[in-house]
Amino acid sequence: MSNDEIMVRKALWQDDSKSIIEVRMKVFVEEQNVPAELEQDGRDPVMFHVLASDLDRPVGTARMDKTGHIGRVAVLRDYRGRGIGVMLMKELESLAVEENLKEIHLNAQVQAKGFYQALGYTEEGDVFEEAGISHIHMKKNLAKSV
Known about the structure:
By secondary structure, the protein is of the alpha+beta class. It has helices at about 15-30, 35-40, 85-100, 115-120, 140-145; strands at about 1-5, 5-10, 50-55, 55-65, 70-75, 105-110, 120-130, 135-140. It has an eight-stranded mixed β-sheet, with helices on both faces. A hairpin with a 2-residue loop joins strand 3 (about 50-55) and strand 4.
């Protein structure tokens, strides 16, 4: 999937880990003050990953586990508002459909809740803290959307 010069593709951890980590460290650790040891949870090798690039520069990423739990959705500050987050999420949704998942879910930062609602996610449960940031669990039924 592409948008002008932005390209979003499935990524392989063994090939793309440097680019994925670069984006996540800038967004989560430097910008949001998430401790690096929480951001790097050791689960990446078993995750599905997507990567957005502007030519050869990594600018966004997201991951999903085999149960359809999405996380680590990150777009560099200078690239926000250009539809890259939507492109990352659509790529993960397509992957989830390929994996025969009926539902996907995530823990959204409360400040990003509207972004996910616009993509068809619904809130579930109460607000909770994760890495010092308020989150809400959200889910999306894929049978209705794809």
